[in-house]
Structure formats: structure tokens, C-alpha cells
Amino acid sequence: MNDWTSGYVADIDYTYDFFRELTPSHLGFCAHSKGHDHALDRPNLTYCELGCGQGFSANLLAAANPHIQFHAMDFNPAHMAGAANLARDAELDNVHFYERSFDDFGNAPGLPQDFDVIALHGVYSWVSKEHQQHITSFISQRLKSGGLVYLSYNALPGWAPALPLRRILTNRAEQGSGPLSERIAEAVEFAHQLEQNGADYFTGNPALTKRLSKMKSMPASYLAHEYFNKDWTPFHFEDIASDMSQAKLKFLGAAEPRDHVDDISFSDEQQTLLKMESDPVHRESLRDILLNEQFRTDLFVKGKLPMTERGSVAAWFKTPLALTRHYGGGTVKLTWRRGEIPMDQEQYGPVLTALAQGPMTTRELLELGVFGQMPWGEITRMLTLLIGDGYLAPSLSNEGLEDRRERCRIFNAAVAKRSEESETLQFFASPVTGGGIALDRFEQLFLLARSEGKETPADWANLAWQILAPQGQRLQKDGRVLETAEENLSVLRARANVFAARRLPLCETLGLTLEPTSALATPRQGKAAA
């Protein structure tokens, strides 16, 4: 009997994270930034996610982009069942899930013949060579000319020192018995003992001490899929480029905007070395050596359509930008590979202040005069850095906004309803950005309370405690678990007040608030537990 998992971890479900690199508007921005005239702002688009895990990202993106048809596959039936349930609760009709393997996905009934985007996040390094070949074959057959592939993977040389660590962990886990989660915890503890007892492998690789320390606090659901699959391959970029070339793809650039600005990652001397390398594939490999790269988020294109300088400026002009972090007029500190990035508050301050009022295109910001006398190159550099650090997000046009608002409201209400039971889902869909915005469980409960007619932060806190208390949930403060209702409510009220002052205006601007529902006429019954 064949093992349907093909060596991939199935004992522990994958996480429910959302990654902005999957967002169509973000991918479009990165493509424009690297000079490709993409078609992601046109109607009737098709998007495919290979190895979608729990399907949460595909559901969220479908809610925020009703003009795109999403098709997502995963081999795990539990993942696909859960994804389909959320799609039904969110009333999504533009997302389709397939319980398939990579070798037979192309034969799935109802699958489009071609796609504008094919995305794989955290997949390629964790499947066998055979499945990698199935993936490249699917891309070759199904990606449209001019289409984009987003591919993330563990990279060399950054992972090279940790290769023996993974062997230590997997060997130890194989020797144990019992649930995988327990064997993972024991394997990590064993590696920590080796490090504490002066194993030369760890003393000769001091960065591994920091890695081990982080691993001890990571959930088993992450560690299982990151380290404990049968197949686990960090790649040299040249090997990935070779695989993608079999599907007629060429490297376009990183899906991380900050990697589009060389001077924040490399010294002057290193930039000179990079400029001396004329071959684009060899140049990327040299970048990885200079950066000791561990993880890459790459964009490939099937037939690049180069933009003229005028076309590039026009693309910037029509790109809407939205503020995605609270800005109260203070100093913004951006950091990247070489540390803090020097930024002039007189330049970025007026931009962030203007966008705090609502999304605007770059042209509208120019017309407001917020850039002062900045040269065009400095303007685009500053905006790229602010997008890369998460202060801004490239967004969707106003056309279709009301439809997106309603679809996102239904989706976000389904997510918020689940927050009554757990903190698993940590993102809402934004009809403005077309992507996800992180909201923790308390923030979701505050928005849920507000949608049910609770008007003040104190009311929101009371409803949150009414939900949490019967479940035995307790908050912490200064490392101490709070036991009494008064203590818990005090912390919840403080958090609700901060949320009202800082995050709620941003939620309103980004379309994350939940409209009043029938719960207004039928308020919750019961009192908070003491």
C-alpha cells in the first residue's frame, strides 16, 4: 500500500498563517518594480496555489479579490475539508479546493487550462525531487505567457551550517515513541543538551545557539513541517533557476521590496562586485554568498514584457497606497539586513500623515505636494522601503470596492466567530489592499463586540471576558497569570482603550470593521464568570 503522504508530515496539521507575498497586488507591485508590465490589474484573472496547507490564505485572498478565480490544492484531506468549511461560512464562490497530489492535480475536473499566477509558499524545499518535477511540469503546461510564479524556499549557503542540526533532530525523533509532537520536543531538548555540554559543532557555529533557543518556543505545528519531513532540501539559487528554466521561466526579482534597494543590503564595495557580474543568475548567487541567504522569496516570469521609463512612471502614478500601521507623527525606524535605514522624517512624515486619512495613488500624493522637492528616484525609493517594512501596502482601485467590502465583511465575520473558540486565525481580509491584515484574538473580539452594538471600549472588554472566562482562559501581566475577573477585565479594558485609539481608525480605513448584525436585536445572554 502506497503512503499517501509521500514522506510529508501529516500527523500534525500545518499552521494557519497568511503571507503577504501571496497577495496579487503585492506581486504586481514587485513585478512593476522590476520592470515587468504585468496583467494583474485586469479582469477575469486566474490564480493557483500549489500546496496551500490549511487554505486560509486562498480563502482570505478570494474574499478580498472577488474579481479573481482562486484554485488551491493540498494532499491533506483534513486541510481541504477545513478550507472548504471556511469558504462555505464566508459565502465564497470564487475559490476552489482540490485534495490532490502534485502528479494528478492537472487532471482535476474543472481546473482552468491556464493561470495568470501560480504560487508556492514553503513547498518546494519540502517535497521530493519527483514532486518538484511534477510542479515544474504543471507550471510549464498551465502558466500563461507573461504570467508570474511566486516561489519561496530554503536557500544556501545560509542553511549549510544547520544541515547537521536537522539530522540530529530527525534521528532523535525516529528513535523515540509516542506522538510526533512529544518526540519533536524531546529532540529539540536533546540538541539543546548537546549545545549546553560544549559540543564542538555548536561552539564552532554560534548562530545555532540562537536558532535552538527560538526553536524551543516554536509550536510543534511549525517545527514538524519545517524540520521533520522526509524530504528537506535547501537550494542554491542557480539550481532553482535551472528548474524554472525548464518551464520557460526567467528570474524577475524578489517578492521582498527591500531587496530591490541594494544600498540597504550591501556596502559600496559589495555593490561594485555585484555590478561586475553580468550574468543575472550568477549575480543572484553572488548576492546569496554576500548575504549568507537562508530563505528566498522569488518571482519568475514566463516572458517578460519590459516597461519603458515612461511606462514605469505611469505604473507608479496609478498605484494606490494604503497605510497599514498606525502613525501618530513620531519617528519611524526602518531596519533591514545592515541594521537601521537612515530616514528623514521631513520626507516620510507628510506622506504617512496624508495616507492616515485614506488610500491615495502616488499621483494624488504628488498633487498634494507631500513630497516637497524630492527627486523622483528618492520618492520611489522611500515608498519602496515603506512598503517593504509594512507601513504601506500597494492597494486595489476604487472600482469594485463596495462589492469587496461586503465579501470581506462576511469573511471577517466568519473569522471573528472562530476567535470565540481559539486564536488560530490571526488575519482579516482587507477590501482596500486585497490582502491580509494581522489582528490578534482580542482585537477580533473587540470588533465583534462593536458589530453587536457594544459602543465603548469597556463594553468590548466585557464581551471579550464573557467569551473567555467560561473557557478557563486567563490573561497574563508581568509574567503572572491573572486569576480574578477584576484583574482580567482591567487588562482587557486597557487593551480595548489602546485599540480604540490606535488600531480602530486604521481598521476603519482598511475596511476591516464588521457591520452591525442581527446580534443587535438578540444580545448575548449570561454574565462573565468570576
From TrEMBL:
GO MF terms, alphabetically ordered: methyltransferase activity
Q: Which residues form the signal peptide?
A: none
Asked whether the keyword Transferase is assigned, the reply is: yes
Q: Which residues cross the membrane?
A: none
Biological process terms from the Gene Ontology for this record are: methylation
Q: Which residues form the Methyltransferase domain?
A: 43-153
Q: Which Pfam families match?
A: Methyltransf_31 (PF13847), MethyTransf_Reg (PF10119)
Question: Keyword annotations for this protein?
Answer: Methyltransferase, Transferase
In this protein, which residues make up the domain named Methyltransferase regulatory? 220-302
Which InterPro entries does this one have? Methyltranfer_dom, MeTrfase_reg_dom_prd, SAM-dependent_MTases_sf
Its protein name is: Methyltransferase domain-containing protein
Gene source species: Parasedimentitalea maritima
